[in-house]
Amino acid sequence: MNRLSRPAASSAEALKRMQVTRRRDTDPEIAVRRLLHAAGLRFRVDQAVLPGIRRRVDIVFAHARVAVFIDGCFWHCCPKHRTHPKANANWWAEKLRTNQVRDRDTNRRLAAAGWRVERIWEHEDPMRAAARVASIVRARLGSPRRSTE
Question: What integer pLDDT is reported at residue 147 of this predicted model?
Fold first, then answer.
């Protein structure tokens, strides 16, 4: 099966699951964004930052040049929660491998352009993730640490 030919859904339930899966504004993204905003940080959401490639960053701190991705465990092959679909297994294996290759390429391109990339798994504690991001952003801006309480 070539990369461009998407197989039919294995069931009506699987089709529905894929149709309702959000590309942006997921619950983990919103949780981290709320905490970052409450900590006094301002950012852009779902932005392309590299010219010439169609890749978008979930949370962008342009002045600090920090790109934050909230990665879904299934789509980005979390080492803790990775699953292997049984239906259309070969197609899914290639699709998920391609996602990982694209993630590494995106990280490399952003780093080469002077960006700090921070990837957060969807299962991470939002408070810890937001505190980590806030610390990175403030360090890159040279700002004093502000309490998040």
Answer: 46
Q: Determine the pLDDT at residue 82.
A: 74
Ordered structural domains, the chain, with CATH: 21-141 (3.40.960.10)
Q: What radius of gyration do the chain's Cα atoms show?
A: 17
Q: What is the pLDDT of residue 87?
A: 78
Name residues of the chain where pLDDT drops below 50: 1-2, 14-15, 147-149
Say which residues have a Cβ less than 8 Å from residue 144's Cβ, sequence separation at least 6: 138
Distance CA 18, CA 57 (A): 21
Residue position matching structure tokens 């991001």: 133
